[in-house]
Write a structure and sequence with these properties.
The protein is α/β, with parallel strands linked by helices. The chain contains 10 helices and 10 strands.
Length: 337
Amino acid sequence: MMKILAIESSCDETAAAVVEDGRTVLSSVIASQVEEHRLYGGVVPEIASRRHAEAIVPVVTEALAQAELTLADIDALAVTYAPGLIGALLVGVNFAKGLSLSAGLPLVPVHHLRSHIASNYISNPELKPPFLCLVVSGGHSHIVMAEDYTKMTIIGRTRDDAAGEAFDKAARTMGMPYPGGIELDKVAEDGDPHAFKLPRPIVHGAPYDFSFSGLKTAVLNLLHNAAQKGEELNKADVCASFRYAVVDCLVTNFVKAAQDLGVTKLVIAGGVSANSLLRRTLAAACEQRGWELYMPEKALCGDNAAMVGAQGYYEFISGRRADSDLNAYATMSIEEG
């Protein structure tokens, strides 16, 4: 039984977890900064870094305590080192390097998006690669072929905004609190998805790529034009129409990629994988075609360290190690990770 202590600090959650053999979570602790960043309508990188520095020791201590273990029981450390907010990542990376040195534990660098995919190994212990995964979050929208636990190939990606970013910006324009995508999803449940016609941007010559910038601009223009005319639009209808358009783009390209590649095992991951319409639409599409669909439980869709521990296990057994010169990176392809 291999126990990995994992650390995550890529954005606005300081998290630590102990995971056994990549599938069993012994503890998971998250210190969220959402309430503080809500005051500013989004994450303030400088504040995020400072809060990570304050929280990381108590969070790691609590993760060990909840697992009823000491560092002597731990076999390796895993830490998110890319991509993310550089100042935030550096807190976790430098803490992990110091802990690795002092405790004499091997250090495993883990890519943030690979971790999101690995959240499915916790929720679905029977899941094994190969499979096709739709990774959708605030900063990323990818279709990834997971050939193995550590071998990933990008099949499609967004050319501009990520789906989560588009959700958050539309929500903010409608006066919803940060993080807006979650609130927009709730409000959309009571709206008519066909109330407003919104575009479905396509990327010519790249049928699996996404483009959400024009779609986001279309809904912002809809809202601004109505405000200038003094008209009040039905917020639930706007949310439902926008959500339907974004999900339609995601599902259409994902299903097309699966059909073209002959893949029948599909996976979703990332913060936007908690979106209720995305989950329902994909479930229906897969059921209709007789495909398998795996989704992380909603509690694991957002940033957490359990997923880092899950992926860290597979990176470790593949021979991945880091030493004291490990650095953090704001951007890095999942293929390099």
